[in-house]
Amino acid sequence: MEETVTDIEVRYVETDQMGIVHHSNYVVWCELGRTHLIKKLGFTYKELEEAGVISPVTNIDLHYKIPVRYGDQIKLHTWIEKYDGVRVMYGYSIINEEGLRCAEGTSTHVCVDQKSFRPLSIRKHLPAWHEAYEQHKK
C-alpha cells in the first residue's frame, strides 16, 4: 500500500471565529493529499484532464475528533482505501504534533468523460492508473 504524508502548517485564514480550523478546510487538505498521492504514483490531474477525463467526488465522509488551531503543524496521511475498477476511495488521517488523530475520513471518486459526463471504467480507459491503483490499494 502506497501512502503519502503531507505536512501542513495551519494558516490564520483557515480558522473560524472560535480560532479552530473551519470544517471546510479539511476537504481542501484532502484534495492536497490526494493530489500528492496521485503524483507519487506517477500521474497528474492535468494529464487526466488533457485526455478529456475528469474525476468528480461522489462522496466525502469526514470525522472530526480533536480541534486543529492556527499555527498547528499537522501531517495528512493519504492512501487508496478501496478500488473496484470504476470507483476509487481515498483514505485520510490528520495527525497533530502530539501524534493524536484530529480527523479521519474518505472520499470516493469516479472518472467521467469531460464533455458528456458519462462514467468511464478506469480499468478500460486508464490502464496505467488501473494498474497503479490495483498495486497500491489497501
From TrEMBL:
Catalytic activity, EC: 3.1.2.-
Keyword Heme: no
Keywords recorded for this protein, A-Z: Hydrolase
Gene Ontology molecular-function annotations: hydrolase activity
InterPro entries for this protein: 4-hydroxybenzoyl-CoA_TE (IPR050563), HotDog_dom_sf (IPR029069), YbgC/YbaW (IPR006684)
Annotated family: Belongs to the 4-hydroxybenzoyl-CoA thioesterase family.
Protein name: Acyl-CoA thioesterase
Biological classification of the source: Bacteria, Bacillati, Bacillota, Bacilli, Bacillales
